[in-house]
Automatic annotation (TrEMBL):
<dbReference type="InterPro" id="IPR016161">
    <property type="entry name" value="Ald_DH/histidinol_DH"/>
</dbReference>
<protein>
    <submittedName>
        <fullName>Gamma-glutamyl-gamma-aminobutyraldehyde dehydrogenase</fullName>
        <ecNumber>1.2.1.-</ecNumber>
    </submittedName>
</protein>
<feature type="domain" description="Aldehyde dehydrogenase">
    <location>
        <begin position="30"/>
        <end position="491"/>
    </location>
</feature>
<dbReference type="InterPro" id="IPR016160">
    <property type="entry name" value="Ald_DH_CS_CYS"/>
</dbReference>
<dbReference type="GO" id="GO:0016491">
    <property type="term" value="F:oxidoreductase activity"/>
</dbReference>
<dbReference type="InterPro" id="IPR016163">
    <property type="entry name" value="Ald_DH_C"/>
</dbReference>
<dbReference type="InterPro" id="IPR029510">
    <property type="entry name" value="Ald_DH_CS_GLU"/>
</dbReference>
<keyword id="KW-0560">Oxidoreductase</keyword>
<dbReference type="InterPro" id="IPR016162">
    <property type="entry name" value="Ald_DH_N"/>
</dbReference>
<feature type="active site">
    <location>
        <position position="265"/>
    </location>
</feature>
<dbReference type="Pfam" id="PF00171">
    <property type="entry name" value="Aldedh"/>
</dbReference>
<dbReference type="InterPro" id="IPR015590">
    <property type="entry name" value="Aldehyde_DH_dom"/>
</dbReference>
<comment type="similarity">
    <text>Belongs to the aldehyde dehydrogenase family.</text>
</comment>
Length: 506
């Protein structure tokens, strides 16, 4: 995207998506019920969405199944699927500004982030899997001359994707792009708090020539549309990003229905460790601040536990506070805003409750702790920093999912490692050190799916993303995610040997 576009004031879209996309048609909920779309930046209702339920999910799963069984997508030459997905990517790129604005008014994310991060990363994800799909090979088995055996990646069938509100388009794309590239059909259930970009993307897919029924989007609450999708007996897999409690529920739904596969990307309480020997503490402090305040702290990989070696503790916390004081909440549609609104009033209240509990538990509040910009009607929070937090406290153990940092001092590397791993989660982790030995030792022993050394959130589509422990299982991104949406099928053809044919002596 060019510079003019990234700094220009946004224009609001003339129309907001307001219907499910099922079998190529834009449709209302069968019940006629709707949900409000609220702009977190203003607290205002800006539109309505279908409040989907089991009957809408039934229609969408039937459309996805029909398309899958027709073979029109799964049996299409991979190079042709690639071509259509790249056409879709071109359309998304042409509509990038529309998508960025939709995402901002739906989720409260700053327009500078949706323009420069969310939409470009979603586009990169789509192109990565489109480009990959005609480069995937099966295997030929070393079974001897009486058999010809090969193994192929067979698409699973109908994939249900249930996604959260913190990166609505990007999280959906991490699932849609590999799943459809592999030849599956999908029913996507976006968060009821942020459904606009998924709906618009499904419309674009039809415009790009992706056959109807390949990508269906049904909106609605988790309890209604989400549960119906996860309990559906004709859905082969649920791929999920969201909270731990819902992840557990999805495993129960699978057990109670058809044992569909379940892939879970859940939360985190990621340790961000700073050793005294790292030579550029200003750089580390800026990363520590942005590691928690980016996206209003609503990032599953947020560096929410900052572990700082005691000899630099006071100096380093002052540096973090200096950066944090420059990060002020502002209107998400203002291109200069770096910190937007949190997703909802409920989320705002939940974060404030956790802040109050941390104070009761004795953590030292050094910055923030309050609602901001209340006069706008939007859901804003000041960046908040607690110092000298006990790692056993609720603030250090429970995911806040807001702009709240817990600083935990430590003395030795052994203590840092123990504190870092003392959590039920295991999504991201990171350390800043001048020692290559410490870097390697920690990379080996940190129990987390992601380890970043001397740079927080150094992500790339080529590398797998996902958690250890209660942060879930299954990986998004990278070629591993493609294979998640396929089963291995072994085919064996019995073949006469040359001797059994009499060509060679027995
Ligand atoms: P959530 O679990 O409340 O909701 C996620 C999705 O699940 C939504 O679409 C929701 O409608 C649906 N849902 C809710 N109840 C359901 C039910 N009973 N059956 C089926 N579906 C149901 O999470 P959220 O509040 O939207 O997102 C925040 C959470 O997501 C945080 O915990 C965060 O850490 C996590 N997250 C994880 C990752 C990751 O990759 N590990 C990425 C982003 C967010």
């Amino acid at each position: 995207m060019n510079q003019t576009m990234t700094s220009a004031p946004p224009t609001l879209p003339s129309r907001l998506p307001a219907h499910h996309v099922i079998g190529g048609a834009s449709v209302a909920a069968a019940s006629g019920a709707t949900l409000d779309t609220v702009n977190p930046g203003t607290g205002q209702v800006i539109g309505t969405l279908p409040a989907g339920d089991a009957s809408d999910i039934d229609r969408a799963v039937a459309a996805a199944r029909r398309r899958f069984e027709s073979g029109q997508w799964r049996d299409m030459k991979p190079a042709q699927r690639k071509k259509l997905m790249l056409t879709l990517a071109d359309k998304l790129e042409a509509a990038a500004e529309e998508f960025a604005v939709l995402e901002t008014i739906d989720s409260g994310k700053p327009i500078s982030d949706t323009r420069n991060v969310d939409v470009p990363l979603a586009l990169g994800t789509l192109r990565f899997y489109a480009e990959a799909i005609d480069k995937i090979h099966g295997e030929v088995g070393p079974t001897g001359p009486d058999k010809f055996s090969y193994a192929v990646h067979d698409p699973l069938g109908v994939i249900g994707a249930i996604v959260p509100w913190n990166f609505p388009l990007l999280m959906a794309m991490w699932k849609i792009a590999p799943a459809i590239a592999m030849g599956n059909s999908m029913v996507v259930k976006p968060s009821e708090l942020s459904s606009l970009t998924a709906l618009r993307f499904a419309e674009l897919a039809l415009e790009a020539g992706i056959p109807d029924g390949v990508l269906n989007v049904v909106t609605g609450t988790g309890q209604d549309a989400g549960a119906a999708l996860a309990l559906h007996r004709d859905v082969d897999m649920i791929t999920f990003t969201g909270s731990g409690p819902v992840g557990r529920q999805l495993m129960r739904y699978s057990a109670d229905s058809n044992l569909k596969r379940v892939s879970l990307e859940l939360g985190g309480k990621s340790p961000h460790i700073v050793f005294a020997d790292y030579p550029d503490l200003d750089r580390a402090a800026a990363a520590a601040a942005w590691g928690i305040f980016y996206n209003q702290g609503q990032v599953c990989t947020a560096g929410s536990r900052l572990l700082v070696q005691r000899s630099i503790h006071a100096e380093f916390v002052d540096k973090v506070l200096t950066v944090a004081r420059t990060i002020r909440p502002g209107d998400p549609l203002d291109p200069a805003t770096q910190l937007g609104a949190v997703i909802s009033e409920k989320q705002l209240e939940g974060v404030l409750t956790r802040i109050a509990r941390a104070q009761q538990e004795g953590a030292a509040l050094r910055l923030g702790g309050s609602r901001a910009r209340a006069e706008t009607g939007g859901f804003y929070l000041d960046p908040t920093v607690f110092d000298t937090v006990s790692n056993a406290s609720s603030l250090a153990q429970e995911e806040v999912f807001g702009p709240v940092l817990a600083v935990v001092p430590f003395d030795t590397p052994e203590e840092a490692l123990a504190l870092a791993n003392d959590t039920e989660y295991g999504l991201a982790s990171g350390l800043w050190t001048g020692s290559i030995d410490i870097a390697h030792a920690f990379a080996r022993r940190l129990r987390a799916g992601l380890v970043w050394v001397n740079g927080w959130d150094a992500c790339d589509i080529t590398m797998p993303f996902g958690g250890f422990k209660q942060s879930g299982f299954g990986r998004d991104r990278s070629l591993h995610a493609l294979f998640k949406y396929a089963d291995m099928k072994s085919v064996t053809i019995s073949t006469p040997t040359l001797s059994s044919l009499g060509v060679l002596p027995a």
